[in-house]
Amino acid sequence: MEIVTELFNEGYEPEQIGEALKRDPDEIFIALFHQAIEGKLTREFAWRCKS
């Protein structure tokens, strides 16, 4: 989980992290979602457009 967080915070996309770690990108997304809730991500994980 720490490696996923570190790579994401360094600018890697979930698909790139999944490929590097030989994991399904959906698993990476779930891990990042969890880390976002915990406040461990330093870059924006998801955003909403306000209409």
Question: Please, could you describe this protein's structure?
Answer:
The protein is mostly helical and 51 residues long. It has one domain (2-37). The chain has 3 helices and no strands. The protein has helices at residues 2-9, 14-21, 25-37. It is globular, with a radius of gyration of 11 Å. The N and C termini lie far apart (35 Å).
Summarize this, please?
The chain has 51 residues and is mostly helical. It has helices spanning 2-9, 14-21, 25-37.
Topology:
Elements lengths: L1 H8 L4 H8 L3 H13 L14
Helix pairs in contact: 2-3
Distinctive features:
51 residues, mainly alpha
Rounded mean pLDDT is 89
Note the overall shape. Answer: globular
Low-confidence runs of at least 5 consecutive residues: none
Domain tally = 1
| Helicity range | 55-70%
DSSP E strands, number:
0
Q: Biggest sheet, open or closed, and with what strands and sense?
A: none
